[in-house]
Amino acid sequence: MDIVSGRGAVVFDNTEFRVVNSRTQQEAYVFAPATLSNIYYGFLAVNSRFNAFGDGVAQLGRSLDVDANTNGQVVIRDSAINEGFNTAKPWADAVISNRPFAGNTGSVDDNDEIQRNLNDTNYNRMWEYNNRGVGSKVVAEAKK
User: Does the keyword Ribonucleoprotein apply (predicted)?
Assistant: First the structure.
């Protein structure tokens, strides 16, 4: 089950995403973007709440690969993610193509700054930044 899917460029601000799968305990996904690989913007969730009811089987998203030109793009930032999400594998393999999820977490440059190319089509374009809560391993980077 995908809650939000499609090719749109959408900002979700102060939105609650709720995954209720307590009866089936099957995987559920919040986002399934089908962003074209040459488009830089897909889904952005900011200042939002991600609540899943179940035993950590919900995932934040997966790419909806409807054709060879698709590489979903989603960013979740400054949001709260509860314990119902799978922290070991928050992003799933693509639906339809079954392309494995491969993230580009970035590399450190000479100034100890993390460099990320959010539009590198060799990787899935699914990111978390500055989130909080048991369901998120991503926290704010230390200020220098």
Answer: no
The tally of domains found in the chain comes to: 1
Write out the residue range of the structural domain in which residue 89 sits: 2-129
> For residue 143, is it within any domain?
no
Q: Which of 2, 55, 110, 112 is catalytic?
A: 2
Query: pLDDT for 84-129, tens place per residue?
Result: 999 888 999 999 988 888 776 667 788 887 776 777 777 778 889 8
Distance CA(78)–CA(72), nearest Å, equals: 20
Q: Active site includes 67?
A: no
Amino acid making up residue 133: G
Whether residue 123 is contained in a domain is answered as: yes
Identify the helix (H) or strand (E) that includes residue 3. strand 2-6
The amino acid at residue 9 is: A
